[in-house]
Design a protein that fits this description.
Structural class: mainly beta
Strand content: 35-45%
Number of helices: 0
Order of helices and strands: EEEEEEEEE
Distance between the termini: 15 Å
Helix content: under 10%
Strand order of the largest sheet: 6-5-8-9
Largest sheet: 4 strands, antiparallel
Radius of gyration: 16 Å
Length: about 110
Amino acid sequence: NHLFIAGPANAPLKACLTSPVIVTAAVSEITQTTAQCGGTITSDGGATVTARGVCWSTDPAPTLANSNTSDGIGTGSFTSSIIGLTAGTLYYVRAYATNGVGIGYG
């Protein structure tokens, strides 16, 4: 998603705002019912990051509609605790960050 401000011809270019850019970290400390994961927000997209965490599902493209954590605000790195897993089940996980423009997924 991109957000921009339109103006008259030859007007100074306004900043283009985007969803945050985030990279998902490797999953670690895996047990039968829990795991650790997280991410690094490399760009806030020009707007304040208002939520960040990880989401997981048995679907290959988990979203915030699936199970998720909430791990604060702002850019930088964070770690999340994933709980409530079922032993022997394959899960997909990715980090997310939100700002006033939209949601960025790792």
